[in-house]
Amino acid sequence: MAKLTKKAKSLSTKLGDNTKLYGVEEAIQLLKDLKTTKFDETLEVALNLGVDPRHADQMVRGMVVLPSGTGKDVKVAVFARGDKAEAALAAGADKVGAEDLLEDMQAGNLDYGRVIATPDMMGVVGRLGKVLGPKGLMPNPKLGTVTPNVAEAVKAAKGGQIEFRVEKAGIIHGGIGKLSFSNEALKANFDAFVDAIVKAKPAGSKGKYVRKVGVSSSMGPGLKIDLTEVAGA
Question: Considering all CA atoms of the chain, what is the largest pairwise distance in Å, rounded to the nearest integer?
Fold first, then answer.
């Protein structure tokens, strides 16, 4: 039997029983204590939901603004013309255009975290469906990424707004900030993220909606959260 390294022994001692349920702030602090990497890891949240997203009335999807931001610089591309294009640039968009932006993306330049479009540009954007769709970047009016108010959409994307979407197994996960954030900032982001998902409960969800919640860091272990600490669960 292989000997445990000092790091593994320390980790095992601190974690103890892997069935333990943690308070949110307790889990955040423990992940910080266990961090051994030099880079600033992301705090990730995963929720197991009582839904089957294969049914349209059980899809869970939306946007939420994390009050403490994400710690990431989100690159934003905007399809717009004239005054709207100027407003998007003024709001901080990284790239703004119309047919020229279409050609740029068709050439493979897709290094964006968010793509936004004015409604009149969807005829152009639609031609990128096979390119943007698989990357989850296709503008969508339900998510506020097809909008006449592109400046606000750009500011939201740059200011900590993230998208959430349930996967086939009924799981939603998302990065909610960096471990270097204060515990209070991460807790505020956790609460906002979970609250948005709770409020997005679809009509077709039967029985218990939020079944499990866990947190982890990029390279750290997964910790189970006590559901009594999760509002609406």
Answer: 69
